[in-house]
Amino acid sequence: MSMNTAVVGLQWGDEGKGKIVDLLTSEHDFIVRYNGGANAGHTVVVDGNTYALHLIPSGILSSEKTCVIGNGVVVDPAKLIEEIESLRKRNVTVESNLKISSRAHVVMPYHKEHDAALERVLSSAAGKGDRNLSIGTTKRGIGPAYADKVHRSLSIRMGDLLDRDYLADRLEVICAIRSRELDALGVSTPPLDAAALTDSLAAMGRQLAPHITDTVYELHDALSQGQSLLFEGANACLLDIDHGTFPYVTSSNCSTLGIPSGTGVPGTNINQVIGIMKAYTTRVGEGPFPTEELGTTGEYIRERGHEYGTTTGRPRRCGWLDLVAVRYSTMICGVTSIACMLLDVLSGFDELKLCTGYELEDGSVTDRFIPDAHRLPMAKPVYETLPGWQEEIVDATDRDGLPAAAQAYLARIEEIIGLPIDIISVGPDRAQTVRSSRPTAALGS
Ligand code: IMP
User: Fold this and answer.
1) pTM above 0.85, yes or no
2) Listed residues 180, 208, 236: the one ending a domain
3) Which of 66, 128, 147, 302 is least enclosed by beta carbons within 10 angstroms?
4) How far is the CA of 249 from the centre of ligand 1 (A)?
């Protein structure tokens, strides 16, 4: 039987999923994106070459694999074409090995304008207590595109780009409505030109036509032929629209719960779930972050970890590892084993802290996460302190070769979250990875 795997971020994103997906690609036939859009950024380093991908699964770097952009993704066709062309320029094959769901919804130029305008309006309209009401989005149009999907009447899907007449009809109505909405948000551009937009989208549709297909049948055909699937989650569990720190989340189900709806493949087909966790915590954009370190600790992690956004270049907020949050994510995502990323960044600390609980306003301590941005800021992290290590560990090849304090740090994390750490990353390159000698834990094993 084929082994189908999901890879998911357990924190607020940027855990290094791209590297692990790249590592596991050789063991699977199909690499499948199920959520998000160009808000995600996956960086993969192969033989010293860096590839930053936003929409296309990083499996594209292995030409014999099939990459799928599932129906749950929102696709900005202009960005997608840009990504395809830049890969081709670097001699990466992007032909029938890339399949895009005809049912994936399109991110339109007006979605991006709406996203940016709403953020602008919200950040200048502070709530009570001067609370900033903007989300700190990537301004890639993600929220407005998903909102249109749920609204139904005004959304365009990738398959629609192949039918010019249908597209023209819809866009005439949509552009009239959107122009009025953008105007109300203070965007002072001329009304949207439906004919010009139809032309440009139909042209992009022609370019992407060879890739646009019914990916649900493609995936089920693959399964029935015994081929294996690797699901690549974008964003991360704590940014999940239903289970993250709402409203400071993204607009899709980026936990593994999004896989069935975002691909048409039932969860019963997933055999193992690898949760990706940084050895510390980061967050980009607004929203509560109990273990955030605003002083020199945060700065040290940011500089050593190059913690600046792949998509927006924004400096990431940094802090200690929050195991209350990680354990919650492992529960939601059904994680079977952990990959601990960027452990090398922590070299040089005398002491390290692990957050094992939250102290609440009434003085009680809980080990339960609070997925609610209104209540989470009230939680004070309860820390356990462990010795740090000074040595650089970027050349480590096995777990026993790590400094004793690093081994103890990992062992304590495993104990608290109750799952094995099967992969340890000590640097950006594929080669800088320590894998457990035992097989990765599978569901039911
Ligand atoms: P949006 O997805 O652009 O709407 O942004 C919503 C929130 O999710 C913002 O705080 C973003 O910074 C955050 N976000 C979205 N995608 C990612 C990601 O891939 N990594 C980290 N943060 C992300």
Assistant:
1) yes
2) 208
3) 128
4) 7
